[in-house]
Every structure is written in C-alpha cells, then in structure tokens.
Amino acid sequence: MKSLLCSLVTLSGSSAFAFSPRGTSRFSLALNANALIVQNKGGGHGELGYQLAKVLETNDKIDSITILQDEACKDTAEPFQSYATDLPNVKIIKAPLADDEMTAEKLQSLVGGAEARFDYVWDNASKNAQGAGKAVCDAAKNWNVKLFCYVSSAGIYTPSSDGPFPMPETTPVKASAGQYLFEQYAVEIGLPLVTFRPQYIYGPKANKFDYIDWFFDRLVRSLPLPIPEDGTQRVSLTNAEDVATLLASPLNDEAAAIQQRVFNCGTDQLHTYDEVAYLCAEAAGIAKDDVMIEHYDYDLLGKGTFPFRMTNFYVAPDMAKEKLGFKPSKNLKDDLTWYFNGYKARGGPEKKIFLGMDWEIVVGHKTPMPDYVSSIYEKYDPIELDVSDVKELIIDLPNE
To answer: Which one has a higher pLDDT value, 380 or 281?
Structure first.
C-alpha cells in the first residue's frame, strides 16, 4: 500500500471526529485505488477484517484502506484492540451496522461525505440485504466499484447425504438464507460480485474459540470426547490468515473472479474428527493412548455439545486455487501449538464447563447409576442442590 494515512474516526449520529498522528494531514491526496472493508462486531468472522487489511497493505493495487467497523465490537478484545498498533496506516470508522434504518446516503456520510469513493469493497458484516447490508450494496453501486467481495457462509449449503464431498460451489443452497438473498440482491443491481463461503475459522487474533476449545476442554481434564458416529467425518478448520489471503485473491485476476462469482473458502488440509482430537492431544503433550474417544449414535442421543456437524459437511478451496492462484500456507498441526498456549493463557484448563450432555452420552444412557456410585464428571460439573429453604415434611397418618 502506497499511502501512509492514519486516522481513527468515531461516528455517532451526524458528528465525526478525526485524529491523525503529529505531522500528518487528516486529508489524503488523490489515490489510485481505495479499499473498504466492512467488518462485523466479532464472532467466527471477527478477525477477518484485521487480517485482510494486513494482506491488502502489501498489494500494489491498493493505495488506501478503510475499515468500516461495527460499533458494537468490544474495543478491549482482539482483534479490535490491535487496530491502532498493528494497522497504523488503516483508517478505522465506527458505524452502527445493526441499524435497520441505514441507507446509502447515511453510509456515504459516515465514510467521508459526498466525495468519498471506493474501488474495492469487502463486506464481512452483512447477513441480509436489509438495513446496512442493502446500504453497503447501494453505495458500492454508486461508487461503480471494480470488485464487490462478500463473505458469506458455507453453512447455507444443503447437500444430499451422499455428497459429493468436498461440497462444490454448485451445491444447492437454502433459498431463504439471508446471505443468499444478499448475494441475489448484489447481482440484481449489477455489482461485480465475488462471494466467499468459509467454514470453521480460527486465528491468532480470534474472539471465538468454541470449535477447538471443545477438544482441549476434555483432554486437559482426562475426560472422554463424545464424537458422533465413527469419527471419520471430515472438517475444514482454516487459519484466518489463509482466509484473508483467499479473500484478497480476486485481485490476482479480477475478471476470472467475477466470472466464477462463488468460491468456497477454506484450507486444503482436511482432517477427520478423530484426527482433530489426536492433533489437539499432541499439542497438549498427551499421549495418543491416553485419549478417550466415545463414539455415539447421534440419532439416538442428539448433537450434545459437539462443535461440528454430525455428518460430513466440508468444503475445499480447489476453485480458488485453480482460478485465482490461491496458496494456503498454514496447517492445523503446527498452529495448535500456539493455540494451546493461548488456551492456557485464557484460563481454559480452569474454567467451568457444562458436562451434563457428555455424561448422558458416555455414562447416563448406558447404565442406571446407584446412589453410591460417583462419576469423574462430578469433579468438573457437580450437581449443586440448594437446600437452604428445605422444610421438614410431617405427615399425620391415621391410627389403625
């Protein structure tokens, strides 16, 4: 990225306050290509705007980057607390992206007024074509953008039970899904849409840890891991840095990206559920023989707390590799080392976890438990009864 513009803009209503480092102007010179990243408040996609900005900073096509950040984000959490230190040349604008009354005119005012224009837009926030979602599309149409990239979700796919897997981009989707309706609106108004459908994402600046934490929560406590069926179902767990690289890859061939339109977004290194368990154990220094996996019938016992789908449901980035030259560089095995260190730093081994469903799957449905039999689950998830208000029960029986 060529320019060195750094400012933080906080917007509330119609007022705006801009802050620039000493010795720099709050106004930028005319630039060749401006990029806008619309970023949600957090969750599974919460890190993507941060990582995408880092990737775009190294791209010669992009001169300036603005992140339109949902104001509902938690500023003291990652990745938002690292914006100022790690992205000093990126302009951050806070905006009410949950506002159902948002219009293109309001959004135009938020991003700098009538003269503000963007050549490339990445929307990592909108869930439907209403409110701010529609406003982003309409504003992008007014800007005559070169690319409009949308982060959708592979969760909208509705594959048959026999696949094919990995699910190709032609897999049927849920027609009522908000993300699909957003895509349809973007196409309807003539945007050069490129949509990405990611799955399970983890990363060094994540603020959602449910997927991988589930395995460590049980491994560090020497508890069984209830995994549905035979554990050979595959999953795509992708580092957010690889996802960001893929999101930026349409810049390698804009015409090809627009022509293809839909790209699955994930790693090319797929693992079975059992393999994920053993990889996590290795990262935690636990011998494979000490890993207790309890396979179970999900038709009988339900999903429990297992973090993934019960059956095969995964994608691969073959189309992006072929059309856009995408090359993933991360792998789960290596990443789990730093992930486990972060897990410990977050207090993972000490936190209280709910294990009632685990107990039902591993123990409860198999054998009635007599009163005098205790369970290892009581150590981590004891049943607590409040007897402070219990009163003596007196029953008068008639004399015989």
So the answer is: 281
Q: How many CB atoms lie within 10 A of CB 194?
A: 24
pLDDT tens per residue, range 210-252:
999 999 999 999 999 999 999 999 999 999 999 999 999 999 9
Separation of alpha carbons 226 and 223, rounded Å: 9
User: 197 - beta bridge partners?
Assistant: 264
Structure tokens at 269: 């290194």
Determine the Cα–Cα distance for residues 82 and 90; give it in Å rounded to an integer: 12
Residue pair 233/321 in contact by the 8 Å Cβ criterion = no
Q: What is the pTM of this model?
A: 0.85
pLDDT band at 369; cut points 50, 70, 90: low
- The strand pairing partners of 66, in sequence order, are 36, 91
Tell me which residue has tokens 């705006």: 16
Q: What is the 3-state secondary structure (H, E, C) of the chain?
A: CCCCCCCEEEEECCEEEEECCCCCCCCCCCCCCEEEEEECCCCCCCCHHHHHHHHHCCCCCCCEEEEEEECCCCCCCCCHHHHHHHCCCCEEEEECCCCCCCCHHHHHHHCCCCCCCCCEEEEECCCCCCCHHHHHHHHHHHHCCCEEEEECCHHHECCECCECCCCCCCCCECCCCHHHHHHHHHHHCCCCEEEEEECEEECCCCCCCHHHHHHHHHHCCCCCEEEECCCCCEECEEEHHHHHHHHHHHHHCHHHHHHHCEEEECCCCCEEHHHHHHHHHHHCCCCHHHCCEEEECHHHHCCCCCCCCCCCCCCCCHHHHHHHCCCCCCCHHHHHHHHHHHHHHCCCCCCCCCCHHHHHHHHHCCCCCCCCCCCCHHHHCCCCCCCCCCCCCCCCCCCC
